[in-house]
């Protein structure tokens, strides 16, 4: 007799709640892709993704942009362990030859305090970027401290820690095809105080 298995569509056992399903994500990205296409029509676009979190979003987004696109990445390391930010470090910033006078679309997984995108935008502007627009998969406006709003965004989230679709917790869950919150017990087991 075979053991009943979980359906492949069931959320990961560590996920408490699915906020955005794979289908909803697809619809959100299609809408944003139309907005970006209209905004940059007639221009060559350099997409700069912030690693690692933006990798899934960037891959889906650029395939919906019928524009002439060049792709670059920058590494931003801030979340060490847990759910609170550490020191921000930028690595592998694209050289001036890739950025100067270009129309740049800076893409990240989530806009939280805003300090990551503000820092990356500043360094790209110092390297002579022509126009820099920002695009985020998720926007968490209640946590903003930097004077920065995204030009394009797929979804808004409240003040909770989310994973999936590129977003990690201690390096895991980036491969989940949906966005979800983690069970408090999972956060506690990793020594992180679960948000109220
Ligand atoms: P910011 O610099 O805007 O405060 O934070 C941006 C970075 O913090 C994101 O690129 C992401 O790596 C991380 N971050 C912020 N909020 C969350 C969250 O809810 N979940 C995850 N997994 N990462 C987050
Ligand atoms: Mg990130």
Structure notes:
- By secondary structure, the protein is α/β, with parallel strands linked by helices.
- The protein has 5 helices and 9 strands.
- Strands 4-3-2-5-6-7 form a 6-stranded mixed sheet, sandwiched between helices. Strands 1-9-8 form a 3-stranded antiparallel sheet.
- Helix 1 (22-40) crosses helix 2.
- It is globular and about 55 Å long.
- Bound molecules: guanosine-5'-monophosphate and magnesium ion.
Give a quick rundown of the structure.
With 196 residues, the protein is α/β, with parallel strands linked by helices.
Distinct ligand kinds: guanosine-5'-monophosphate, magnesium ion
Please tell me what the overall shape is.
globular
Question: What assembly state would you assign to the polypeptide chains in this entry?
Answer: single chain
How many strands in all? 9
State the major sheet.
Answer: 6 strands, mixed
| End-to-end gap | 44 Å
Q: Which blocks of ≥5 consecutive residues have pLDDT under 50?
A: none
Q: What is the strand arrangement across the widest sheet?
A: 4-3-2-5-6-7
Structural class: alpha/beta
Secondary-structure map:
Blueprint: E1 15-20, H1 22-40, E2 44-51, H2 55-62, E3 68-77, E4 89-91, H3 96-99, E5 103-111, H4 115-126, E6 131-139, E7 152-156, E8 162-163, E9 179-182, H5 184-189
Parallel strand pairs: 2-3, 2-5, 5-6, 6-7
Antiparallel strand pairs: 1-9, 3-4, 8-9
């Amino acid at each position: 007799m075979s053991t009943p298995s979980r359906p492949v569509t069931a959320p990961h056992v560590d996920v408490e709640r699915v906020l955005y399903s794979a289908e909803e994500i697809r619809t959100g990205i299609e809408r944003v892709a139309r907005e970006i296409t209209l905004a940059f029509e007639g221009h060559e676009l350099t997409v700069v993704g912030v690693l690692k979190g933006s990798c899934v979003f960037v891959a889906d987004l650029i395939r919906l942009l019928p524009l002439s696109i060049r792709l670059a990445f920058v590494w931003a390391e801030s979340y060490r362990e847990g759910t609170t930010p550490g020191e921000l470090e930028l690595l592998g910033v694209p050289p001036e030859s890739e950025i100067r006078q270009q129309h740049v679309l800076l893409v990240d997984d989530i806009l939280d305090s805003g300090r990551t995108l503000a820092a990356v935008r500043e360094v790209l502007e110092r390297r002579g970027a022509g126009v820099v627009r920002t695009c985020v998969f998720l926007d968490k406006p209640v946590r903003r401290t930097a004077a920065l709003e995204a030009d394009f965004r797929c979804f808004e989230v409240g003040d909770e820690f989310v994973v999936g679709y590129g977003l990690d917790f201690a390096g895991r869950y980036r491969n989940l095809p949906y966005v979800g919150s983690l069970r408090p017990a999972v956060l506690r087991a990793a020594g992180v105080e679960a948000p109220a």
